């Protein structure tokens, strides 16, 4: 699952207009929708989860989080409004906390047990903001500061607030209010180097985009979609001397500029998702930067990105049969370009992590960097820890000792295990069992952490689960409306508490009754402005907001100049019918607010406009026409009138099916059979009847049926058999046409064919002819075997 988190700037500066006539907040909304449309073209987007956060204070900043649906995301995006401060630092910190609290309860970071690239939850944080400076409640901030106080349990185990599979990409809107003269003069999208977010993007392995026009915005969104990849960021650093130079290598590009340094780079390694399982699969971790000790009561904090050091000493790539290894492709960088330019696909550079060995002055490689054979990509191969020692030992075990280790080999293998971190014991044991050599790694090596550390990690998981539930419950909750500020009683410095109050009143010449008016008002409250409550116009002019003052003055002038009181308008007609753009087309809310319609005075009966009787009332009773069933299978009544005309006689053409009279039913068909056969035929007849009920009976089919010359039309039994077989034939034809190779239903229907052996064989041949039409060779062979078995049973004296 790839998490795509949009952090949209909702500060007041996003209300400024661009040369397109739209505000920055509208441009940000359109950018999010465009990104989602482009991303939906990728088949991997079905595993995406979208989140929406703003610059508001928590929990109002989470508009769409872990549990909200896609419809909620779209609705909250359309209703975003700009107003407030540019608190980018705290908003980014809340975004990281929202992601990391789920990681802590799932335990995918595997603290103290190595870093597993295949245990990842990739997240792409897309920040859409303007070029305004960052602000806070106290002052303007010249740089980006993330508060280090976190409510996420276990945040002290990582030095940075982000993780190695979380990257930040920012879109900095720098569109001017006037039309720029050089719209198409940018050959590429520059980075927002002057904005504080650019440093944060570079630290996490992302980048920033400085947008000056709409064309650059569309190009940046296309580039962003390509950046959404599953992988982790690793900090590669060169160790030791440089490799020997190549004579034909040039250190400058085509324009004469020096190429970027390759000695240190922070880039992504792609972790592919398994096509069969749907998630990433791996075998070996990347070692920690410390030796796990069972006596250490605490875990040292780790960096978000592992510092992998590579040695430029050329060595041969090592691999043996059946030993699993992990292969990860490196993102294009100056390092990959330098390795590909050397054109040495048969050599590799070993990689290691400092302080991963038992003694700090030693290091052991855990893999190597190697160019592909086609010299198109550079791959990181993750192998067992200290693989140059392990692989020869395993090679001798399988090829020389034949899985029967000698004491000398056992001693060498035990010496290797002492130099291997304990968290490699489980993967190595599974790999050896896969190769056919189990029980070589002792079980006690898995306990590489102390009991206090294990207990502490379990406690953090439980705390993270509780905090996650609290966070999910707080999303969508609104802050209660402030009831008002209560007026406190008079203080000692109040005018009424002064000792010379009476003298002051006499000097002012006021009447003594003023003292009674200046009393305490303990029951009074001061109202607090609420955005959701519209001010009551025409009662108190001080209730009119500043932004609506000019419109209100114009409205007052219009009403003042009216000559009649009947024409006074409290609300303008234009204002009454004007709604925001995002609410246009929301007919469901409009219809929900409409009053319910009144009931009719009299319930008029529904009538059928049938020919001959237009006043016929529609009946609610459900009638079943059993005439169609009786036409083929007969009825149980023996006293039926005979058919007035032959079946071969075709009726006059009509647009619809022919109507039958209630007494115009065919004759009964009676067959003698045993009880078991009757039960089997009853089940099959039920299947056929179910098909008959679904498909309307078409009289044209019956009319086109021409009986054979040897059928006596006056014989009820032969006529009934012929009608039954013809109806059954069309049902069997439908079974033949169905895709697949499940023919149980077809053969169960064919077991109910009636008549002599010649009639039944002719029926089977018609089914074989139909199967040949659809080129079903397997079915044709099965039908021929069915016909032969039917003839054999008939010759043997079997009775159907």
- Main sheet specs: 7 strands, mixed, barrel
Strand content: 5-15%
- Largest sheet strand order: 9-10-12-15-14-13-11
What fraction, in percent, of the residue positions are helical?
25-40%
- Provide the CATH topology of the largest domain: Rossmann fold
Task: Catalogue the unreliable spans.
Answer: 533-537, 621-685, 687-705
Give me the CATH architecture of the largest domain, please: 3-Layer(aba) Sandwich
Number of domains: 5
Quick one: how many beta strands? Answer: 19
What structural class do the secondary elements suggest?
A: alpha/beta
SS summary, helix count? 22
Give the class-level CATH name of the largest domain.
Alpha Beta
Organism: Lottia gigantea (Giant owl limpet)
Pfam family, one: Beta-barrel_INTS6
Protein name: VWFA domain-containing protein
InterPro entries: Beta-barrel_INTS6 (IPR057413), INT_SG_DDX_CT_C (IPR029307), Integrator_subunit6 (IPR051113), VWF_A (IPR002035), vWFA_dom_sf (IPR036465)
Describe the 3D structure.
With 800 residues, the chain is an alpha/beta fold. The protein has five domains: 2-228, Rossmann fold; 239-247 and 260-448, no CATH class; 485-527, no CATH class; 534-572, no CATH class; 666-795, no CATH class. The strands form five sheets. It has a seven-stranded mixed β-barrel. The chain has a six-stranded mixed β-sheet with strand order 3-2-1-4-7-8, with helices on both faces. The protein has a two-stranded antiparallel ribbon with strand order 5-6. β18 and β19 form a beta hairpin. α7 runs antiparallel to α8 (407-419) and α19 (716-737) runs parallel beside α21. The longest helix has 24 residues, at 451-474.
